[in-house]
Amino acid sequence: MTRTPRRTRGVRRALTGALLAGLTLLTTAGPAVADGPSASTSPAGDEAGPTEAGTTFRTATALKQGQSGTAQASAGDYLYWVFPADAGQRPTVEATVKLPESAARRGTSTWQVDVYDGLRRRQACMYGHQTRKAAADAATVELSCVLRPVRAWSEPWANDPLPGSYYIRLTVVDLPAADLGLPVGVEVRTSFKELGGGHDGGGTLAEPLVPGVSVASAGESDGRASDAPRTVAAGEPEDGWASGWWTDRWLWTVGGGVLAALAAVFGYSLTRGRGRPAHVPTGV
Length: 284
Hints:
Layout: H1 6-35, E1 38-39, E2 61-62, E3 68-74, E4 79-85, E5 89-98, E6 109-116, E7 122-123, E8 125-127, E9 131-134, E10 140-147, E11 164-174, E12 183-194, H2 213-221, H3 249-271
Parallel strand pairs: 2-4
Antiparallel strand pairs: 1-12, 3-12, 4-11, 5-10, 5-12, 6-7, 6-9, 6-11, 8-10
């Protein structure tokens, strides 16, 4: 009976340990890297938000990521805010409407919050309470809209959320005529979840969908510096837009390559045989 050389057994132990360590690393870190959503914390959430709202897309009040905004308006007004969203994020919009005293109202009202992308395409909500009816004696009404994950790139015919500006529009869609013009207080909030490379679709946009970004880029490329503030400054994340080429799928690719190499070496060590038996002379 021939014994396995110690060196061969040591190599097998080392390869087995490395393979198990790599598998453990991927299985434990995988969900946190690829699909584990974690709420993004933005310093803007601690800053005082704007106290007014726009009345059209062009006059929409800018919100930073994670920032809240308030406004005093009249029932029947269209209120607009705009905020940036980048690839790999899933934005959530929440709105609270403080209604007038019940004694001043004549009946129920229905409120609605809509979200539009930089091309002013209405984006569907994955879930939430986008439209709600307020009873005649209700003090407030809560609205919410959780958007689909923002993709770095999409087909021209698709309606996928893309990096850029997102507009919030809040209004009442059903109201007794006698209640039009009553004062209301509004608060809107934005929050984000980072979803990671599990939702990356590959590719990238030439520019984010922000109004005026193409004009600003053309001016910079022509060398014509303008003294006016950049249009994209109000609609850009604090740490800038994602570059588009980096994704945590690279970690999975490298990790898979390392594991494949270790598995190949381990399989070769098992199938190559035990070499020359110890009792056979070297010259034979």
